């Protein structure tokens, strides 16, 4: 039977009560899922489990591979690797009995302080779209539904449940919508709406964006799920095109926390900033049934919701029975795979490949026999991720000290230097989560040592190379107050740098941070949140076993240089409205336009090898080819980037350049390759509020190079 007939026949057999059970979440009897649909046993529709994402699988009480933060995956500029990571996450979801993964997150990095930047991919829509599509493709290749989130303009955590992104149509179309469009084009099975409002309307009620754009214009035929407790109203949401309410039931203890009788409107209680009202649930239960009875919601809408859910269940083999969870480590398409060696390897690959070498005066790679001082307040802990719904608990992890000790042939000493940086977590902010329930399971002991700056300086003086590990601490539901590193870490780096001119700094951050000492040290690496492979990946790059082939998916600059700085109206907003007045001039588009040199530009990252570029030539209407040669005596990985400069058009303010495509290539010493780049249509187009997508006639310049500020060859292209 054809898929549509199969789901159509099933739908025809369901009563209204049964249909309603498929559109509203319920409590998972096994307690592992983040969201649970009970299914309809009599009709042969099994339960359906949705699980977080996106840094690995966060099934309650279960361990799984802790992959690097999404921003690290993005920094690889390697869509095949993103695909492999997605497939691994899909297999792990299956092994843990889950059916849909709540990943990837593809919101554009607009605000450098955003607490969830680590879960996102890029400040550029073509880049975010390509990496996001790779992840979607991978997850779904393992027969697990991918859920692209959070649709749309969820670019800050401050007041995320109420703030309205006031954003013009051109900016939405050119910047914020394209990564979601790319996921839809990649066949994503599900889209999660954002908590926030857009131009005044809550996203779950946004008929134009959900109904007209996503489902209508883009032809999305999967299901749209609410963010948790983020469904605003039964009628508005159903008519806007929402298909599933999650989690559908109040969080245990939430009502009590809110002083039980919320119906009375207890004025003493306020949900903390960024935390949704966890009693706001059940709208797609009786209230939806009533709205259908009263004619406010057409009955066909309920059928459409169910058809979309059954459609995805059918597409991924959930309606033909027989899926079982695997034993640990077992590999089988049906049974999934958990914490296997190949998954550990993929996590390590992404962590190493996503590492960005900002600067290097020649101290790196380290000599095998160098005496190394491993310094930093958290060198005995892996940096798994940020706080919140993406927290993943691994079976196995490696700390920076362990990684370096197992690789080094010289002496290794350790010093903490300054007080430990504590992780922050959304779960600490939830009024109804007890301390025992905290998701990361790693209660930190902040009293376990007496750090001493003098010890760190002594260790630095005695070593050939001091390697200082610094980190920020970010979480879902909170933005950072500052881009400065927390605690006394800047002081620590400066003291170590003054003691030894070979100081190397390894930064672990969820997005841009300020590095005031960057010119005073010998080398700086950015490792994002490297996940369980932390120390191994750090050692592999530091000793040159792996080339640091990550490139920046986001501009690094002092906080005051970003377009959202110093303008409360833009960020965090005034009267619950954040005005996206900078328009499309976000990230490098802003820095180019304002003619400001960032600390490190978009696309930046050194290799241990050296690459030379020959002249680019056209290789088809949407393809350019450029010869790239590795002129070093070691192999290396280059990320070749193509940007497009549009012709000037009267009355239209366009970015100077926009990323059109990229390609990562591994080149052996002395190897030369012609690298082909596909140019994305988006880089040539602009969205005109009256006439829609427009490609201005004229000569465009394709710029090809190593970063947005390091162009090596250009080519005119007429359109
Ligand atoms: C987050 C989502 C997540 C969901 C379920 C929400 O707080 O915004 O990204 O998937 O919770 O945990």
UniProtKB/TrEMBL annotation:
Residues in Fibronectin type III-like domain copies: 638-708
Entry's Gene Ontology molecular function annotations: hydrolase activity, hydrolyzing O-glycosyl compounds
Protein name per Swiss-Prot or TrEMBL: Glycosyl hydrolase
Segments crossing the lipid bilayer: none
UniProt region (Disordered), positions on chain: 318-341, 435-454
Biased segments, Acidic residues type: 327-336
Residues of the signal peptide: none
Record family assignment: Belongs to the glycosyl hydrolase 3 family.
PANTHER family hit by this protein: BETA-GLUCOSIDASE
Species, as recorded: Haloarcula argentinensis
Keyword Hydrolase: yes
Pfam short name (any one): Glyco_hydro_3_C
GO biological process assignments: carbohydrate metabolic process
InterPro entries according to UniProt: Cellulose_deg_GH3 (IPR050288), Fn3-like (IPR026891), GH (IPR017853), Glyco_hydro_3_C (IPR002772), Glyco_hydro_3_C_sf (IPR036881), Glyco_hydro_3_N (IPR001764), Glyco_hydro_3_N_sf (IPR036962), Ig-like_fold (IPR013783)
Record keywords: Hydrolase
């Amino acid at each position: 039977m054809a898929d549509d007939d199969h789901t159509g026949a099933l739908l025809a057999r369901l009563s209204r009560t049964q249909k309603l059970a498929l559109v509203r979440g319920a409590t998972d009897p096994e307690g592992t899922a983040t969201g649970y649909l009970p299914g309809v046993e009599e009709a042969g529709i099994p339960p359906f489990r949705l699980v977080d994402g996106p840094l690995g699988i966060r099934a309650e009480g279960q361990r799984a591979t802790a992959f690097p933060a999404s921003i690290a995956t993005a920094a690889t500029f390697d869509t095949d690797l993103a695909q492999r990571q997605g497939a691994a996450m899909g297999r792990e979801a299956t092994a843990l009995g889950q059916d849909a993964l709540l990943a990837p997150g593809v919101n554009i990095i607009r605000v450098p302080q955003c607490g969830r930047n680590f879960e996102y991919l890029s400040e550029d829509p073509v880049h975010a779209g390509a990496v996001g599509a790779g992840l979607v493709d991978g997850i779904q290749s393992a027969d697990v539904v991918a859920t692209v989130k959070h649709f749309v303009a969820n670019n800050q955590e401050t007041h995320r449940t109420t703030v309205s992104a006031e954003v013009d149509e051109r900016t939405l179309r050119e910047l914020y919508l394209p990564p979601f469009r790319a996921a839809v084009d990649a066949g994503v099975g599900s889209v999660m709406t954002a908590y926030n409002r857009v131009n005044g309307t809550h996203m779950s009620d946004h008929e134009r964006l959900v109904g007209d754009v996503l489902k209508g214009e883009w032809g999305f035929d999967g299901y749209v799920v609410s963010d948790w407790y983020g469904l605003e109203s039964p009628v508005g949401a159903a008519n806007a095109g929402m298909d599933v309410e999650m989690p559908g039931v109040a969080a245990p203890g939430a009502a009590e926390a809110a002083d039980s009788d919320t119906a009375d409107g207890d004025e003493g209680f306020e949900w903390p900033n960024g935390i949704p009202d966890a009693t706001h649930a059940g709208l797609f239960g009786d209230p939806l049934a009533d709205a259908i009875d009263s004619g406010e919601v057409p009955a066909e809408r309920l059928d459409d919701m169910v058809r979309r859910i059954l459609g995805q269940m059918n597409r991924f083999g959930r309606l033909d029975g027989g899926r079982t969870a695997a034993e640990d480590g077992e590999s089988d398409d049906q049974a999934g795979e958990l914490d296997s060696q190949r998954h550990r390897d993929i996590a390590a690959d992404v962590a190493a490949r996503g590492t960005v070498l900002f600067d290097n005066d020649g101290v790196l790679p380290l000599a095998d026999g160098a005496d190394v001082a491993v310094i930093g307040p958290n060198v005995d802990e892996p940096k798994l991720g940020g706080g919140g719904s993406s927290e993943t608990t691994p079976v196995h992890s490696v700390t920076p000290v362990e990684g370096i000790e197992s690789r080094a042939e010289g002496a290794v000493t350790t010093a903490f230097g300054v007080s430990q940086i504590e992780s922050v977590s959304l779960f600490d902010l939830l009024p109804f989560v007890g301390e025992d329930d905290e998701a990361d399971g790693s209660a930190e002991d902040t009293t376990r040592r007496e750090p001493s700056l003098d010890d760190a300086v002594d260790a630095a003086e005695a070593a050939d190379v001091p390697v200082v590990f610094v980190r920020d601490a970010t979480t879902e539901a909170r933005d950072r107050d500052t881009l400065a590193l927390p605690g006394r870490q800047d002081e620590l780096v400066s003291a170590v740098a003054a003691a030894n001119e070979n100081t190397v700094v390894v930064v672990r951050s969820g997005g841009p941070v300020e590095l005031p000492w960057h010119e005073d040290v010998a080398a700086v690496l950015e490792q994002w949140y490297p996940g369980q492979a932390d120390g191994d990946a750090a050692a592999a790059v530091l000793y040159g076993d792996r080339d640091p082939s990550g490139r920046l998916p986001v501009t690094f600059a002092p906080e005051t240089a970003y377009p959202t700085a110093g303008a409360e109206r833009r960020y965090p907003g005034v009267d619950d409205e954040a005005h996206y007045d900078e328009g499309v001039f976000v990230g490098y588009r802003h820095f180019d336009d304002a003619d400001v040199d960032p600390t490190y530009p978009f696309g930046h990252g050194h290799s241990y090898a050296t690459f030379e570029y020959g002249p680019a030539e056209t290789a088809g209407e949407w393809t350019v080819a450029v010869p790239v040669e590795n002129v070093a005596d070691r192999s290396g990985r280059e990320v070749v980037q193509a940007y497009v400069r549009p012709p000037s058009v009267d009355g239209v303010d366009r970015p100077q350049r926009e990323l059109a495509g990229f390609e990562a290539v591994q080149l052996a010493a002395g190897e030369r390759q012609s690298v082909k780049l596909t140019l994305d249509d988006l880089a040539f187009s602009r969205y005109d509020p009256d006439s829609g997508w427009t490609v201005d006639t004229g000569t465009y310049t394709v710029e090809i190079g190593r970063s947005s500020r390091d162009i090596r060859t250009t080519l005119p292209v007429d359109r």
